[in-house]
Amino acid sequence: MVDAALLIEDSGQYYQQCGGSLVSDHHVLTAAHCLVQKGLQLKPESVIVRLGQYDLTMKGHDFKVDKIYIFPYYNNRTYANDIAILQLNKKVDFKDLIEPIVMAMPGENHRFETSEVTDSQIGYIAGWGRTSATGDHSDILLEAQLMIVSQIECQLSYKKSIRIDMSRLCAIAPLESLTESGETMDACKGDSGGPLIQYDQIGEQYYLTGVVSFGKKCA
Q1: What percent of the chain has pLDDT over 90?
Q2: Does residue 218 register a pLDDT over 80?
Q3: Rounded to an integer, what distance in angstroms lies between the CA atom of residue 97 and that of residue 60?
Q4: Which residues are CB-neighbours of 105 under 8 A, at least 6 positions away?
């Protein structure tokens, strides 16, 4: 299990507000916007990282944060370069429910400009975010299967509201993922910072290709 829950302090209490991915025994990758409020970077002591627990109502392995590294070119208005690293205060012992994810190397992020769906275009996200646009956060880790699409197709969807360049990776919910109510299974508020994972058939392992950042609608 590579997913990390980010518990962020609000009025003296810690609440799950974002997700992340364990990428080493001291580091969690997440979205920069999760760690910026009102234009100011959060202090490390305002964030707790919980590992190894599907159900947030149960006790997990909680880690304090020593340092927060936000990508220097992150843009808080457009969410460009929406990446950050959390350095944990102690070493993570890998075990059955706690293990790091392998990060994709440059050139392995599978951008496509074809409508033909292949296995390499399928990605998976997971998080404890809202189960609908106006719903509550989930206590249980949920996942959804998405389809990677080209920047061209993505830009057509957003039109001129935001620029989709090669630094962004877009994924959409397949039509077959519609729920009984006609909604799609997708990321929602609270899932930001969580992983986009794809399966490498050559290396026969899952690897991290993206970080959940923003979307048009949710769940």
Answers
A1: 54
A2: no
A3: 10
A4: none
Confirm if 50 and 56 have CB atoms less than 8 A apart. yes
Q: Which two tokens stand for residue 209?
A: 């290709």
Compute how many other C-beta atoms are within 10 angstroms of the C-beta atom of residue 196.
22
102-211: same fold as 3-88?
yes
Residue the block writes with tokens 């829950």: 5
The residue among 125, 219, 138 whose CA lies nearest residue 171 is 125
Q: What is the CA radius of gyration of the chain?
A: 17
Predicted pLDDT of residue 107: 61
Contacts of 204 (CB under 8 A, 6+ apart): none
Q: 95: which DSSP letter?
A: B
Catalytic residues: 33, 82, 192
* Confidence (pLDDT) at 176: 54
Domain extents in the chain: 3-88, 102-211
CATH superfamily of domain region 102-211: Trypsin-like serine proteases (2.40.10.10)
Question: How far is 217 from 219, CA to CA, in rounded Å?
Answer: 7
Considering the segment(s) 3-88 as one domain, its CATH architecture is Beta Barrel (2.40)
pTM above 0.85, yes or no: yes
Whether the predicted pLDDT of 2 surpasses 90: no
By 3-state DSSP, what share of the chain in percent is helix, strand and coil, each rounded to 5? 10, 40, 50
pLDDT tens digits for 53-63?
Answer: 999 999 889 99
- Are 170 and 152 within 8 A, CB to CB? no
